[in-house]
Amino acid sequence: MKSIAIIGAGIAGIEAASKLTKFGHKVYLIEKDAEIGGHVAKWDRLFPSQTLAKTVLDDLLKNLNNRAEELTNVTVQHCEKKEKQFEIVLTDNKKLLVDAILVTTGFDMFRAQRKEEYGYGIYDNVITSAELEQMFKNHKVLCKNGSPPKRVAFVHCVGSRDEKVNNRHCSKVCCVTAVKQACEIRELYPDCEVYNLYMDLRMFDRYFEDIYHTAQSKYHVNFIRGRLSEAGENRDGQIVLKAEDTLVGKPVKITVDLLVLMSGMEANHSQKSLNTKLGLRSEPDGFLTTENIFTQNNISTVEGIFLAGACTGPKTIPDTIADARAAAENLNSYIMS
Predict the structure, then answer these.
(1) What is the model's pLDDT at position 66?
(2) Sign of dihedral through CA atoms 322, 324, 325, 326?
(3) pLDDT category of residue 214 using cuts at 50, 70 and 90
(4) What is the pTM of this model?
């Protein structure tokens, strides 16, 4: 039996741990937070099927079935390679000697306050998509004054495809999440007017275009192609938006009760520190460097250390789970050779 450390206990770490324990290995699942589950544990419903996030997470945890040793509220303090093994010291001073490491540290949500022109952290009724999802968990969406919104706007690509914040990549999930959430707002409050301000709608996967069609035909969501230039607040606490409709070449001004910023994915902020300890490399955007993006995307630049999930770039949930399974197969082949 071999020993493996998995750093990060989101869905990639959980799925990989499930596979590796089934191969008969001892797995340590290391998580900096008090609970495992990552971003999915904080979400309500998932596109494209509106499946409860809890249902997906419960299925993954059921497969794990307590076979891995979960080490929570800890991070890697030190790591040293000794011949073909790694000695890891955690922040609680626990020492692990393992035959391989799998990094599944995932991503961070873009910090919306970096886009000051959108008013996040300045105006009460400007929130992020993650905060809206928490409201959906409670089955009600309310403005700061406690009343349901009559007009809501979603702004796409906040922190994605934006050279000003050094995030030129597309986060893949923001467009479809915005459309999903717009539909949910209309389900909760049928009389609410909903606007989506987008650069390009990247509905790239199965059923994504169906959600977009449903948003227009059933829920009558308004789609405006144009980037928001400025958000301000009026005396009533409403958010006044100034943008340009690039399809008709005219400026638009919209007053809404709630503005939702679709914060994208960016590299885990703690990744630099972990890279130093493990000897890993990152790309200019902060995501981890792989041996070969086509054929060895789960293999890091350090022998014996493997990668899975969104630590190597934005991924959907199905892609993350598939990536974790592939990484587990690669890692198992390595330590059993």
Answers:
(1) 86
(2) positive
(3) very high
(4) 0.95
CA 164 to chain centre: 21
Helix (H, G, I), strand (E, B) or coil at 203: coil
Phi/psi at 183 (5° precision)? -65, -40
What number of CA atoms fall less than 13 Å from residue 17's CA on the CB side? 32
CA distance 288 to 272: 10
Q: How many CA atoms lie within 13 A of 231 on its CB side?
A: 29
Chain centroid to CA 102 = 19
Residue 75 identity? T
b (16+ CB within 10 A) / e for 278-304: bebebeeebbbebeeeeeebbbbebeb
pLDDT in tens, 36-84: 999 999 999 999 999 999 999 999 999 998 899 999 999 999 999 998 8
Alpha helices in 51-95 (DSSP H): 53-64
Distance CA 226, CA 216 (A): 18
Q: Using an 8 Å Cβ cutoff, are 98 and 3 in contact?
A: yes
Q: Which helix (H) or strand (E) holds 13?
A: helix 11-22
Q: Is 82 helix (H, G, I), strand (E, B) or coil?
A: strand
Q: Which residue has the tokens 């959600």?
A: 211
